[in-house]
Structure formats: structure tokens, C-alpha cells
Amino acid sequence: MINRKETKKIYVGDVSIGGDSFISIQSMTNTNTKDVKSTVSQIKRLEDAGCDIIRMAVNDLEDAAAIKKIKKEIKIPIISDIQFDYKLAIAAAENESDAIRLNPGNIGASWKIKEVTESCKFHNIPIRVGVNSGSIKQEFLDKFKGVNASSICLSAMEEVEILEKNNFFDIAVSLKASSVNLTIESYRKFSQMSKYPLHLGVTEAGTPKKGIIKSAIGIGTLLSEGIGDTIRVSLTSDPLEEVIAAKDILKALDLRREGIDLISCPTCARTKVNLIEMVKTVEDKLYTMDKNLKVAIMGCAVNGPGEAREADIGIACGNGEGLIFSKGKIIKKVPEDKLLSELLQEIEKIR
């Protein structure tokens, strides 16, 4: 049982972050935001895969104006990602963005920061601030002798304090590094300094092959310690892979059970079927299925049902035939060529 650190609860649209909220999954579009059709199409794919919150870059006023149009076509809330222009943050808020991602220290004069915070208060939307290892303020790099957890955390805390001085407290914080160990150390340190909800991620994690491993270790370690309220797996790939990986991390820690949890054996000399291809086929068919089930694909009819006795439903393959089982008990014996179709039929029957 994971005992989560108590944090302040904020709302991004109708999705709560922090407090006793579930751990939400985020991703970011890579379409041109003002291309409403393409952006909506991508977001709908992410929604179907289990994304709870979507972030998109707002680079100009045309992008900001597109937010209102996009919101009419999707179900999940939007975070507008702003770099340096305070006018874009205000425009995004006015066009019904559900949250803003920006660092107030990047937008200049104090009156600009005040205008942004007043707009966000008026529209009742939060702001996410934070740093990554490449955006630490020089003052903290000098003070703490380079990039480390102290320079990252103090740089992020400065952004928080700027908002607090403007009486703005609906804040989430991220502290990302491309180094897994530095990411873990930074979030651990900041979680002792603040009760604002934390957005977890390993930045610039890379391609799925390596990025999923880095993210699973970094995000998973922190979540297992009760640290973190919302997550993004950052990959150089289709954002759909980010959402699938994030769901798998949460399911591995029993923090969420939505969707199919597929387990399978690693194969050995007892395996008489092409289990690798079989598992891939089942995974492709089940990953968007809206059922809360554990499904097992096992290569050995002798040990399979026992090793996967916790599975709601599964198959154990033999030589030319296999067994369909549930909770370790055999339901029926099926010819090999009908194993997958019979399994899918049994899954459909489960309510």
C-alpha cells in the first residue's frame, strides 16, 4: 500500500490534482495548435487511450483563439504552454484554457505577472511552474555550484514565490531532468519544501526504447514513495505511446486499474507456440478495451494457470492445444488455432 504525501488540491477543468485525487495522465500535442482539425484528431486518440489532461503549445494569438474551438470537440481539459509572452497567457485564459503552463520569471516586469495572475484568478484556472535541468537561473547555478537538486529546487521555488507575492496559490510544480537520479533527488527534496501538487516526468527521456525505461524508473520510484500527483512520460514519438506507457506505470504500482493489465511469461523450451507474436496480437486488440481485467498469456499448460492464478482470465498454451483459465481454475481446453478467438470471446462476456 502506497501512502501518498498530502498536497494541495487544485483543478484543471473537472480533473482534480493533488489531495486525495487519482494520479492523472498528461500528454502534449505535437500538431500545429491552430490546425484545429489535426489537433482535435490527435487529442481524441489520446482520450481513447486514457489521457486525462492535454497540453498544447500556444505560440501566437491564432493558437490561443483555436483553444475555444478545440474545446468544443474534446472531452479532456487543456493546459496552454506559454514561453515568454504574457499576452498569450491572458489570451489563452480568455479562450477557455483550463490551466496555464509558464514561469512568471520569464515574462518580465512585475505588472505583466500581475496581469497574468489576475486573469487566471478571474477565470479560476491554475498555473504550473517549474524548471528542468537546462533552465535553472544562473544565480542558483553559481550559488550551488552547478546543476543539482538544490539549484533546481530553489529555482522552482522562486517561481512559486513570485506567484504567491501576487496572491496566487493555485499552483502545480515540475522539476525535471534528463538524469533519472537527479530527477528523483529533486522531487524528493522539493516535496519536503512544499505542499503544492507535483507534476512528475523525466524530461528529454528519448525514444520509446530507452525513454520508457527511464520514465518508469524515475516516475515509478517517486510514486512508490508517495510523491507525485500527475505524470507525463515524455517520448520522442507519437504522444499515444506516452499515454500507454503512463497507464502501464500506474497499473504496475496498482495506482490505477482502468483497462486491461496484460501479463505473459518470458517463454522457455517448454513453449510450443509463437507466444511472442500471440502476446503482441492480444496486446494490440486489448489496449483500448474499457474493462478492468488482468489477462494472462502463458506458454506452458503445466505451470501457466498456477503462475497466473491472480488473472481474471487467461490462456496457457500446450502442443497443438491450450487451456483457458480464470483465477487459476481451468474453464476449457481449446485447439491452438482457436485459442485467441476463444479468449477474446470470454473477455467480452465478462462484465
UniProtKB/TrEMBL annotation:
Ranges for domain IspG C-terminal: 262-349
Iron in keyword set: yes
Residue positions binding [4Fe-4S] cluster: 265, 268, 300, 307
EC number(s) recorded for this UniProt protein: 1.17.7.3
GO BP terms in the entry: isopentenyl diphosphate biosynthetic process, methylerythritol 4-phosphate pathway; terpenoid biosynthetic process
Metabolic or biological pathway: Isoprenoid biosynthesis; isopentenyl diphosphate biosynthesis via DXP pathway; isopentenyl diphosphate from 1-deoxy-D-xylulose 5-phosphate: step 5/6
Key word DNA-binding present: no
Record note on cofactor: Binds 1 [4Fe-4S] cluster.
Swiss-Prot/TrEMBL cofactor(s): [4Fe-4S] cluster
Any matching Pfam family: GcpE
Domain of life where this protein originates: Bacteria
Keywords for the protein's UniProt record, in alphabetical order: 4Fe-4S, Iron, Iron-sulfur, Isoprene biosynthesis, Metal-binding, Oxidoreductase
Record-annotated IspG TIM-barrel domain positions: 7-246
Catalytic activity: (2E)-4-hydroxy-3-methylbut-2-enyl diphosphate + oxidized [flavodoxin] + H2O + 2 H(+) = 2-C-methyl-D-erythritol 2,4-cyclic diphosphate + reduced [flavodoxin]
Role: Converts 2C-methyl-D-erythritol 2,4-cyclodiphosphate (ME-2,4cPP) into 1-hydroxy-2-methyl-2-(E)-butenyl 4-diphosphate.
Homology family: Belongs to the IspG family.
The protein, known as: 4-hydroxy-3-methylbut-2-en-1-yl diphosphate synthase (flavodoxin)
Organism: Peptoniphilus faecalis
